[in-house]
Design goal:
heterotetramer, A: alpha/beta, Rossmann fold, 9-stranded mixed sheet, two-stranded antiparallel sheet, 11 helices, about 30% helix, B: alpha/beta, Pyruvate-ferredoxin Oxidoreductase, domain 3, 4 domains, 6-stranded mixed sheet, 5-stranded mixed sheet, 20 helices, 23 strands, binds thiamine diphosphate, binds iron/sulfur cluster, binds magnesium ion
């Protein structure tokens, strides 16, 4: 997503002129548990804002409801902390009418994959230019420990006390199943450099960029990603010149899979996993997909021009 | 021999056919031409239940009622005086609904009498038998036979023949008729247009050759420019006149045609109709667009309104301007999708869990549909609140001429402010008296804030502090008090005091006023008043009510009848406005309501008024 | 020296800590033990705003208020008499909320005074300064220091120490305390249980060595068996007692714990908690299950209720039995998720577009939470309708003992009838008087029909016929009249006539009655009444109201204040029950409401009552 | 879906004993347009009911709102004609509590793929034992000609008068992207024998069987499937011994693709299409997936047994 070339609206002369630091992008002190992966995601996002020097007043973070959805409150940009599951419609309305804004949507796994599933997959289809980040801790955090669609089968929660009944939904496969999908990546909170690079690639992608972040929740799902955190062997990194290149992760994780992100079928195969390993990297990217916001951009008329057009319209109904 | 000429100040015509035979087009053109000649006109669609109901089926009656008058016509009237029916079954449907005047003149296609199918012949026989019990003047017309001289498939031609027939009966201006045909079929071939004109001429000729009468409803001369359209078009046009250019919706009858109209009009005037994946997303997108600087709107009907409930609460809480148009249809649930009802008032007002104050406006005419959008946009923006505009299926599809609005650039929303926010102002810096606050728009430097549906303070920080929560509730509520101070009491039509005051809202205005006029003509001391603002209420109601011995509302929604089993004065469930007015004024407001999936007829309302007098009402 | 013994008929205790320090567990055990000793008990959770708020933060105060008495305790009381606080910041939070009695005894951890962090020391200093302006009796307790003699991390031990301290002060039965600890930590290791008991003993010892007083709140002897639980558990248990075994839900605070409870209990008793993908699916699944023969239920709170709006209308229209429990929280929108409010009444009643009559019950106590589910199931099934049960966050998390219900097999739903449907009966064969009809259940031979949300006739055939639509509306409405005939007028507490009648609903009952008792003790002629049925209304209200000079409701929801700017008697927005009662009785019912995200306190209500007298009220 | 082995509830002794004919399963006269593909789907469904001799009182058809959703009204079984987009939650509630019933869900493309997308893909995941049929005419029929997610890009409608902005959603790919998916097939209204065989396979599959029917709507999207109807060359038939075998179609359509329905990756590749051809047949089947309704079946206690259990429960809370 690169919003700078649009400038629909005038008057932004007195925005951020000086170089902005991470602090300039920071707002309230985050209220997540110690060790929560959301801290890391926030850090990477602040680095992105700083490295891209995004104008704070031209940037909007939308979210739903959940621990993760507190995200916008910790950034000194515009934000819309809306309804559980409904970050994306709001973000879509913003971007459709204000292509000059940088739009981000932050969601939890209950938020995005359970109640918000319809909006999520439709947003993938609309391919409106924004970054959508799924903070996936495999559980309902804010409401205290209920099963989410991404909860591993057998994992016990307050609502499924005998263990989750179904295998976890794979958000990557689901996204890749949607026609007009244009950007799908996976990263983790414990690889902050890779997380940052992934967000950067997502931001520069023109279209709807879906980034799933494997996010640790020490409070309720401690241990779920432990295998990957402790044993780099359990991670496979997708690497490719057209993918996400991040030396730190490439050094740490020895299992590399060279994957051309333009190959949808292979992306689907890789997304499926199957060997119990966690795969990080860019699964799919296609900038040639139509972007709904562009095909539908608003022309700009003055009030007087509008009245002229409307009078012509009224003529059609004149008696 | 010169035909006899009947002079009337108003007349009601119906054209009914099987679905797909084009009676609606015939009625529309007849109505438009009449409007263009200077007649008052009110058109109501007669809509079948299915897309493709079986042929010759009462439930499938499709068409139009057109009421024309010398003066302005404000409602669809009582019973039809002249009917063109393409078969006896659709005619029976209207007959059974008591839609036809005792002495109605009926032009009836009679090909069915000698139809090859025995069943059809039997139906015709039985049908005519049933009809013969009434005192209609049935004139048989061999429409099929005549049309087949010009077209191969008479199902595609009868409607134009019927149009010709009616135009001859009412001596319409044939140049205008032809012009209208050319306009209506502008996307079709020359050949089609010519054939249609030919069929119209056949209709005219048949009338000239066979009919010993003509009906004169003289138009009024006027040089006030007029426009003629239906309520959904008026809503769309009003939105454009208000400078609204983002509408997010999900299709639902009878609201959808607003989006059909705007999809076309926005293409010229600049604007987007976003058909979202569902109603929830639609209102969510509209809220996003409003947050980003627009005053966006969404258009829906009952089931869709239900789905928007949560987001409307969020718009209220975040004080994001939003206009929601609800084109009311029959309910509850899926109900009667194509039919009129006025039963969403309480849901609009009270639908949100928690206290969610909002503004509700109900246009009474198609002209008001246009203007209400301008008012709605302005209030939504100035008060940072949700404005609901309640129209209904009757307004949506009804067609009526009204004075052409003089478009005013001040009606238009301004481009969103992108200048920096003054130092140290906060995004909900509520004026302590009025609750009003300045709106911050993304792009404004120094204005960065996070809107939230959680309880929040003036800086939009989430706050669970008791006093902050109470303050937010108070400020959002206060805005309604402020708005109410700017409203005027409704006007009373008729004497300012008397025995009975009839109170209405929405599309029933014309019918109520006609009924009240009739009652007054009969010497009853009745007046009426009509409410445009349902929330906040217009001032002065209690005072107005106090001047009348009785007050009753007339509404198209359910109310229990007092003499029904188990129903008592205490447990009786009342009509929706009635209920509101009782709480608001403590006056023992009664109600007369009918929920028959059709607009109210003046004569029925008149009956309700009379009953209030004869039985001493239901107090 | 023997400690001084203070004798009290009731006393209120608070334990407050940072979130995660276990004050709630301490309070719960103290409450349970007190209940088991025969004291009246009412427990309310003090819930922080975030899952993990920062340490030593006023907004993070977490804990419990426990009010115990010799007699039954019906509400959380006014101000706390005794407080145990783990740091001065959480104590300040309570102080600033005016939650503490003027002469409260406060046990305060004092490790902060000499904390290594200078900022902490300064905060302590400033905090104690602020507190010193009040007349509390602050007793410093080196909790950390003592606990560290037993545990490594005192944050995990202080709560048990505090429990010991309180148990000593109130001379609780130590055998019961130990038994309760064993029960509470049944899933933990022996070691944990023993360590906790050790910590409790340390607390007891400290009290014995340092405190010159004891507080006696003597229990009442009773051999009536009692149970003690919170309102969400009571709802779950009531549902099981009613034979309901299918609950579909989506997590939402403060309703979720019903599902946590039932997920465990159904595992033993047979039943399914289905956590659906969202609230819409949840109610849809419940309706499916009910259609298939159950009386299924769903449990939610404000935002979830909003999402269920459309489906609730469908259940009404198809006459599918359904029980919806709405655990009210602060609104509008996401509002105050963990806090109490009573502002969903009008949304519950009027949320659906179109006329959707339904039944609304509001339990006032935890015991009523249990029994209301039995009533709800029975009504939903017998009347084929939706029954909404409105509880709230106060009931949901409050703990109170009540007489153990004697389970009755007749409370249980029967297995769905699978015998053939009698010949020629129809699925909506409405009894013409009562609107009641026989329910057909899949599996019943000859009963095949298609339920539909469209207007339908007695055979459930889709029908757009005017009279059919009107009949359906009438029959669905009639059922409410029939039900209302079976209801009894509410009881009046206090004199049957007087100067003021206070009307309440839901969880405020105990607090209102206590306030009214106080007012009567001061000579004011006040009585109170409490409504269980909000729709249909219980009979006799108008008559009861007529015996009092004034009537006012007391509610936890927003109402405008008359002396606020712009607010007039005419435009004032009133509390929700108040609004209903005015329309229902035409009596000029006034309201006193507070929306502070906490249960009402008797002293505040008393203030509201007094004001009604001194200012002549707001009539 | 084969419900006969369950018999939760008693008393069904006096159900249908005699052989039932198509007429026995027919109710009101369908009110679809002449030539509407829904007629053919109804015919195939009646044939299925007849050939399986399903007890009418033990069979429930659920639907949403749309032309297609009128389906239940034309069958002499139990039915639930519910809300637009919400057939599946109702069907799920029925099947979870009444495993003895045969449950079918009938949806239109707006119904299933637009407003109902969330429920649809969650239902795929739950894998509750039922047949879900999507009647896909690529348009909103009942509300008169608005774009649906499956409308081909460029196709004009009343709401997208310049032509649909986005490429059509592929319901097969979307379904196949969901973890725990267990049965995906495609057939058409103009191949009634194949349609029947597909429904039959779907009915006998244990789990959630998703069948997409290419359905003609002469009223609004006449011509959309014309290429396939007129030129059998434009159709490719998936054939396999484990797939759907239907000689008539196999004779008519010469393009056969042998596809093993247990191969998910290949199924996804084939679902994608890409050569403009319409593929009919069984894309995927896996009966080993967990079925939510089974893991969650209700035990059966008498009222007295329940009271005993509940009393034990109350003991836990006794003072
Ligand atoms: C309509 C609605 N339903 C339910 C809720 C309650 N709720 C808040 S957050 C949440 C889920 C949180 O889980 P997730 O989305 O995974 O975010 P996390 O807290 O794990 O970051 C739920 C169910 C709500 N606020 N609104
Ligand atoms: C909540 C709600 N929104 C919208 C509608 C209006 N509506 C009825 S059917 C329909 C779509 C019909 O299209 P589809 O699902 O493809 O079925 P088809 O008619 O083509 O068979 C819509 C939008 C409704 N009934 N309820
Ligand atoms: S509960 Fe989990 S997701 Fe929420 S803040 Fe704590 S660690 Fe993070
Ligand atoms: S409009 Fe289309 S889908 Fe609907 S009945 Fe007619 S042909 Fe069938
Ligand atoms: Mg989560
Ligand atoms: Mg369709």
């Amino acid at each position: 997503m690169s919003g700078s070339q649009f400038s629909l609206l005038d008057g932004d002369v007195c925005g951020d002129e000086r170089h902005l630091t991470i602090e300039d992008y920071s707002s309230a002190v985050p209220r997540w548990c110690p060790g929560c992966g959301d801290h890391s995601a926030l850090g990477a996002m602040q680095r992105l804002l700083e490295s891209e020097q995004l104008k704070r007043e031209k940037t909007v973070f939308c979210s739903g409801i959940g621990c993760s959805s507190r995200f916008p409150h910790y950034l000194k940009t515009y934000g819309f902390h809306g309804l559980h599951g409904r970050a994306l419609p709001v973000a879509t309305g913003i971007k459709m009418t204000r292509p000059d804004l940088n739009v981000f949507a932050i969601m939890g796994d209950g938020d995005c994959c359970s109640i918000g599933l319809g909006h999520w997959l439709h947003a993938v289809r609309y391919n409106v230019d924004m970054v959508a980040m799924l903070l996936d801790n495999n559980i309902y955090g804010l409401t205290k420990n209920q099963t989410s669609p991404t909860t591993p089968q057998g994992h016990k929660s307050n609502t499924q006390q005998q263990g989750s009944y179904l295998p976890a939904l794979n958000p990557l496969s689901a996204t890749l199943g949607i026609t007009n999908c244009s950007f799908v990546a996976q990263t983790s909170d414990w690889t902050p450099a890779h997380l940052f690079q992934t967000l950067k690639a997502a931001f520069h992608h023109k279209g709807f960029s879906f980034v799933r972040v494997l996010q640790r929740c020490p409070h309720f799902t401690a241990g779920i990603y432990q295998d990957a955190v402790r044993h780099p062997d359990n991670v496979e990194l997708l690497t490719h010149s057209a993918g996400i290149c991040e030396p730190e992760a490439e050094g740490l994780y020895k299992n590399h899979i060279s994957h051309d992100p333009s190959d949808l079928h292979e992306a689907r195969r890789l997304a499926e996993g199957g060997n119990g390993k966690f795969r990080l990297g860019l699964f799919f990217r296609d900038e040639s997909r139509p972007r709904y916001n562009e095909t539908r951009a608003l022309p700009k008329y003055t009030a007087e021009e509008k009245i002229e057009i409307l009078n012509a319209e009224l003529d059609r109904y004149a008696v | 021999m010169e035909p006899e000429v009947l002079h009337c100040s108003e007349h009601t015509v119906e054209v009914v056919s099987d679905s797909g035979e084009g009676a609606q087009k015939c009625g529309q053109i007849f109505g438009s031409v009449s409007a263009k000649m200077g007649n008052g006109v009110w058109t109501v669609e007669i809509i079948p239940a299915e897309i493709q109901p079986p042929a010759r089926n009462a439930a499938g009656a499709s068409g139009n009622r057109i009421r024309i008058g010398t003066q302005t016509v404000t409602n669809w009237g009582d019973r039809a005086n002249v009917v063109v029916a393409f078969n006896e079954q659709v005619l029976l449907a209207r007959h059974r609904l008591e839609a036809l005047a005792e002495d109605a003149v009926i032009f009836l296609e009679d090909m069915w009498e000698k139809h090859e199918d025995e069943k059809v012949r039997a139906e015709w026989q039985a049908g005519l038998e049933e009809l013969s019990r009434a005192r209609y003047r049935i004139i048989r017309v061999p429409m099929e036979e005549i049309c087949l001289t010009v077209v191969d498939d008479a199902r595609k031609g009868k409607n134009m023949f019927a149009l010709g027939l009616l135009c001859a009966v009412y001596t319409r201006d044939m140049a205008k008729v032809k012009a209208q045909i050319v306009h209506q079929f502008r996307s079709k071939s020359d050949e089609v247009r010519e054939r249609n004109i030919q069929l119209v001429e056949l209709g005219v000729r048949w009338a000239e050759e066979h009919l010993p009468f003509r009906i004169q409803v003289p138009p009024t001369e006027s040089d006030r420019p007029m426009v003629v359209m239906n309520g959904n078009e008026a809503v769309g046009m009003g939105a454009m006149a208000a400078g609204m250019d983002y509408m997010a919706m999900y299709p639902i009858t009878p609201a959808t045609s607003v989006s059909h109209y705007l999809a076309e009009a926005f293409h010229k005037a600049g604007g987007v109709v976003h058909q979202a994946e569902d109603e929830i997303a639609a209102v969510g997108c509209a809220i996003g667009a409003s947050f980003a600087g627009k005053v966006a709107f969404t258009v829906t009907s009952g089931p869709g309104l239900a789905l928007k409930t949560e987001f409307i609460g969020l718009a209220t809480m975040t004080e994001t301007p939003l206009v929601v148009v609800d084109v009311q249809r029959g309910g509850p649930s899926t109900g009667l999708p194509t039919k009129v009802e006025q039963a969403d008032l309480l849901a609009a007002l009270f639908g949100q869990p928690g206290d969610a104050p909002k503004v509700i406006i109900a246009p009474a005419t198609i002209e008001e549909c246009f203007h209400s959008m301008i008012t709605a946009r302005r209030i939504a923006e100035a008060f940072r609140c949700v404005v609901m505009v309640l129209t209904d299926a009757n307004l949506a599809t009804g067609v009526q001429p009204f004075p052409r609005p003089k478009l005013d650039p001040r009606w238009q929303a301004r481009q969103p402010d992108q200048g920096p926010v003054p130092k140290d102002t906060r995004p909900y810096e509520w004026d302590a008296r009025s609750g009003l606050s300045r709106r911050f728009i993304p792009g404004q430097p120094e204005g960065m804030f996070v809107a939230t549906g959680l309880s929040h303070d003036e800086a939009s920080r989430v706050s669970y502090v008791a006093a902050t929560n109470a303050l937010g509730l108070k400020m959002r509520s206060r805005k309604m008090a402020v708005l109410s101070e700017t409203l005027k009491p409704p006007e009373v039509r008729g004497d300012r005091s008397g025995d009975l005051l009839v109170v209405g809202w929405g599309s029933t205005k014309g019918a109520i006023e006609e009924a009240v006029d009739r009652a007054r003509a009969k010497g009853l001391k009745v007046s009426s008043t009509h409410l445009t603002f349902l929330a906040p209420m217009q001032p002065g109601l209690k005072e107005i009510f106090s001047r009348f011995k009785k007050v009753m509302t007339v509404e198209i929604n359910h109310s229990d009848e007092l003499n029904d089993p188990f129903v008592t004065k205490e447990n009786r469930r009342l009509s929706q406005l009635c209920w509101l007015l009782r709480a608001h004024t403590l006056v023992d407001v009664d109600c007369w309501s009918r929920c028959f999936g059709e607009p109210l007829r003046p004569d029925h309302i008149f009956g309700g008024i009379e009953r209030m007098f004869t039985k001493g009402g239901q107090r």
